[in-house]
């Protein structure tokens, strides 16, 4: 899926991603890369097991250096979110507490609204093995949880960050919607021209068999070539195929003088 | 984010995920895991570099054994989608062809609607380094591409599968559009038969002019006849038109002995 365009401005804004006691450098790197993919920039680490900086994280981050180089570290989750106005805690399932529980779409819209209002926001992600403590969850304003298959819920931390980053980008004005290669159906006269042409060349070849069958068969042909909404360009390719089949005989090196054209 | 609940029924349905020439077993395993997280089940591999089965894939799949054990392998992308009615190709960016380009949300809704109408669907994912060939893209009905940061578009294959699987699962919550009285696109093998036929009869007539132009022209033809999602019945009518043009000369009462057939 590589396709980086260095001409484009680097998106780098939005909520801080906060990893609490991450163990594996690879995961930190993959988180940075997921953030870069979807325009997030600020990564905070709480007490990473192998210290910081971490070579494995740098390697796994691929070229997300702008994120790795700007990482800040903290001793506790409370320290890491001290300057933020609004914080989500991610959990694998709703916990028994009084916080609202959101899905990723709803949470991302909330984050986008607060971002637009110049609030500082963040999302807390827990340890690889057992997530956030109840105390850490209690630091957050709301909970976000993912709509996974209840029988197989094993999102890793980089995947969870990827989904939140992706939803964040989707909420943005600058979210890059794939340009619609919108097909414009050809004006109907192009279809009529095609039908006149087919009427002639098929009639010449006995395609319609009997005169009374012809109107229904023409209706079927018109339906066939109208239904797809062919563009002018597509109709031109189609016409080229018909012409080739109609005008040219198979070229056979028999030297028998088989006619090139009818 | 662990939180698997063995009491819950395992979701296992929806579009087939098709990986074309995947190189790393770890990626295949991560793909299986992403699929399991979001309730997909059917994984097809086209010509995996290290053969199949693959120990590294099994290890990386964690406990997604039901997916790994059911993997099927194929020699070509065309073979892998032969029985499917509707197929997406994933690309890093829109290509220069006639296919509609969708985002993941829109594509997932389309897949969900077709699933509800008992159609068989699939999503093609390309090689780790350079994706799908133009010819492989031309096999698909539509393209899906991801709204990534244009300046940092480096989704790996497991992440791309994760996002599509996640969007697929999200569409399950929503009211699905009432099934439309829509045409069921013919299984892909019907398109392949048509292409083989056209390859032969057009080649015989010098349609492709030069050998180096032929692959691109064939891609365009495949795009032209794939895009409308022709039903089996429509393809039969189309084939009848081609046959008539190809086999029969205009009947002209000149008595010149023009051949009735080639």
UniProtKB/TrEMBL annotation, chains A, B:
Q: Does the keyword Cytoplasm apply?
A: yes
Tell me what this protein is called. tRNA (cytidine/uridine-2'-O-)-methyltransferase TrmJ
Q: What does the record give as the function of this protein?
A: Catalyzes the formation of 2'O-methylated cytidine (Cm32) or 2'O-methylated uridine (Um32) at position 32 in tRNA.
| MF terms in GO | RNA binding; tRNA (cytidine(32)-2'-O)-methyltransferase activity; tRNA (cytidine(32)/uridine(32)-2'-O)-methyltransferase activity
Q: What SUPFAM superfamilies does the database record attribute to this sequence? A: alpha/beta knot
Protein origin, superkingdom: Bacteria
The entry assigns this protein to a family as follows: Belongs to the class IV-like SAM-binding methyltransferase superfamily. RNA methyltransferase TrmH family.
* Origin species: Nitratireductor indicus C115
Residues making up the signal peptide according to the UniProt record: none
Kindly list the biological process annotations in GO that this record carries.
tRNA nucleoside ribose methylation
Q: Where does it sit, as one GO cellular component term?
A: cytosol
């Amino acid at each position: 899926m590589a396709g980086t365009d260095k001409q484009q401005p680097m998106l780098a804004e939005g909520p801080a991603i906060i990893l609490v006691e991450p163990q594996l450098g690879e995961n930190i790197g993959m988180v940075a890369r997921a953030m870069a993919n979807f325009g997030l920039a600020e990564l905070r680490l709480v007490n990473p097991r192998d210290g910081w900086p971490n070579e494995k994280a740098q390697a796994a981050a691929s070229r997300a250096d702008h994120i790795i180089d700007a990482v800040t570290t903290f001793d506790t989750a409370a320290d890491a979110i001290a300057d933020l106005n609004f914080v989500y805690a991610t959990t694998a399932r709703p916990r028994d507490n009084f916080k609202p529980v959101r899905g990723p779409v709803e949470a991302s819209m909330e984050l986008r609204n607060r971002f637009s209002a110049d609030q500082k926001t963040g999302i807390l992600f827990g340890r690889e093995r057992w997530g956030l403590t109840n105390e850490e969850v209690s630091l957050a304003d709301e909970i976000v949880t993912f709509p996974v298959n209840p029988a197989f819920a094993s999102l890793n931390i980089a995947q969870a960050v990827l989904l939140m980053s992706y939803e964040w980008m989707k909420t943005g004005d600058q979210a890059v919607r794939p340009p619609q290669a919108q097909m414009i159906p050809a004006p109907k006269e192009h279809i009529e021209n095609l039908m006149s042409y087919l009427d002639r060349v098929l009639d010449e070849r006995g395609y319609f068999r009997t005169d009374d069958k012809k109107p229904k068969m023409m209706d079927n042909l018109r339906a066939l070539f109208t239904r797809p909404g062919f563009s002018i360009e597509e109709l031109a390719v189609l016409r080229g195929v018909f012409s080739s089949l109609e005008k040219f005989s198979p070229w056979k090196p028999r030297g028998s003088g088989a006619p090139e054209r009818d």
